[in-house]
Specification:
The protein has 352 residues and is of the alpha/beta class. It has two domains: 73-103 and 229-300, FAD/NAD(P)-binding domain (3-Layer(bba) Sandwich), CATH 3.50.50.60; 105-227 and 305-350, FAD/NAD(P)-binding domain (3-Layer(bba) Sandwich), CATH 3.50.50.60. The chain has helices at 2-15, 36-61, 112-115, 119-122, 139-150, 169-181, 236-239, 276-292, 320-327; strands at residues 70-73, 78-82, 88-92, 96-98, 102-104, 117-118, 132-135, 155-159, 185-188, 192-197, 203-209, 212-218, 220-223, 227-229, 262-264, 305-307, 313-315. It has a five-stranded parallel β-sheet. Strands 1-2-3 form a three-stranded antiparallel β-sheet. A three-stranded antiparallel β-sheet has the order 10-11-12. Helix 6 links the parallel strand 8 (155-159) and strand 9. One of its GO terms (biological process) is cell redox homeostasis. Its cofactor is FAD. InterPro entries: FAD/NAD-bd_sf, FAD/NAD-binding_dom, FAD/NAD-linked_Rdtase_dimer_sf, GSHR/TRXR-like.
């Protein structure tokens, strides 16, 4: 989100001429350049010093014991903790909540491990990504492509089928057109065939369309094609907890696994939104049921979601396609209102 904000700052600079400000490159007195390393240092500092340290401080303030160790289950009440330096200990608990999340997968494309990065890696790059290919069509792929393009990098998105599957198509089409308008390029209807070392740039991406083979070279190839849960690494079989080995995720209706005292939240749960605020609320619901006698489970039907693409998009509830499926073409009413932010009114390049 901070990188998205950084890209919007550059857009604001581009808008300044319409308000009478003139950059040095246009004959004025001010010149603006972007430093990838400075931006990343600021973002990394925020993550380490505010988010992570703030959470640890919160543990201390509330009497919570924090183990900076790798945890695996030994049985349904026992957890083994490994510090990675030969130190191992065990702890026990009446209840256990699994919240280990997931990791990006590389799609199994030949050469992906050697030549590509994930969205997790992007935020820790020491050098600017340069000309970038983003593979994927969900919100992480489009958000990354949007802010990379906004920061001034040549950006291409490779899409197998449709953008933002599951979101309202009318709104997605507007996002699609706007991203093209601001310079993001798309390769549609295909997936990578393989990745190789490039000759003029770091990575050569190869794909096929219509029986023909195509290729281009990029400084960075970012794979954003989904995440695999970490269930296989947690020793769940020792406690009898079932998980899906193909997805690495745990079926957990109402956050409960098949073992009564073991619960699961977040990206580790099968068929749940991969959204941190949702996982936090689900975890609180479990705690309230266990220790306060509440009966309410997490309601996943009305979750507000925001996509931080260049044209930002928020939604809650059913999209129009889901309305048609659930209520029929005559069972709902659609209202559409198009508007443009006031600050865009004098900026010609912002016009739709």
């Amino acid at each position: 989100k901070l990188m998205h904000i950084a890209a919007t700052k550059k857009e604001d600079i581009h808008d300044l001429a319409s308000y009478g400000f003139v950059q040095k490159s246009d004959g004025g007195e001010v010149d603006v350049t972007h430093n990838w390393q400075v931006m990343c240092q600021g973002i990394q500092g925020y993550i380490k010093e505010q988010l992570n340290q703030g959470m640890i401080d919160g543990f201390d303030a509330n009497g919570i014991t924090y183990f900076n160790k790798y945890a695996t289950l030994k049985d349904r009440h026992t957890i083994q903790l490994d510090d990675g330096q030969g130190g191992v200990q065990t702890v026990t608990a009446n209840y256990i909540m699994l919240a280990a999340g997931g990791r990006p997968n590389n799609g199994g494309y030949p050469g992906a491990d050697e030549h590509c990065i994930s969205s997790d890696d992007l935020f820790w790059l020491k050098e600017a990504p340069g000309k970038t290919l983003v593979v994927g069509a969900a919100y992480i792929a489009l958000e990354c492509a949007g802010f990379l393009n906004g920061l001034g990098y040549d950006t291409t998105v490779m899409v197998r089928s449709m953008l933002l599957r599951g979101f309202d198509r009318e709104c997605v089409d507007k996002i699609d057109l706007y991203m093209q308008k601001v310079g993001v390029k798309f390769i549609r209807g295909t997936v990578p065939d393989r990745f190789e070392a490039g000759t003029t740039k770091k990575v050569k991406a190869v794909w096929k369309q219509g029986g023909q083979e195509f290729s281009d070279e990029f400084d960075t190839v970012l794979l954003a094609i989904g995440r695999t849960g970490e269930a296989a690494k947690l020793g769940l079989e020792n406690a009898g907890v079932y998980f899906n080995p193909s997805t690495g995720k745990v079926p957990a209706p109402a956050e409960g696994t098949n073992v009564p005292n073991i619960f699961c939240i977040g990206d580790l749960v099968e068929n749940r939104p991969e959204l941190t605020p949702v996982a936090k609320v689900a975890g609180k619901k479990v705690v309230h049921r266990l220790f306060q006698g509440d009966q309410e489970a997490m309601n996943y039907r009305l979750i507000a979601t925001t996509v931080f693409t260049p044209l930002e998009y928020g939604m809650c509830g059913l999209n129009e396609e889901q309305c048609i499926e659930k209520y029929g073409a005559d069972g709902y009413t659609s209202y559409t209102k198009e508007a443009k932010p006031l600050e865009w009114s004098v900026v010609k390049h912002r016009s739709p």
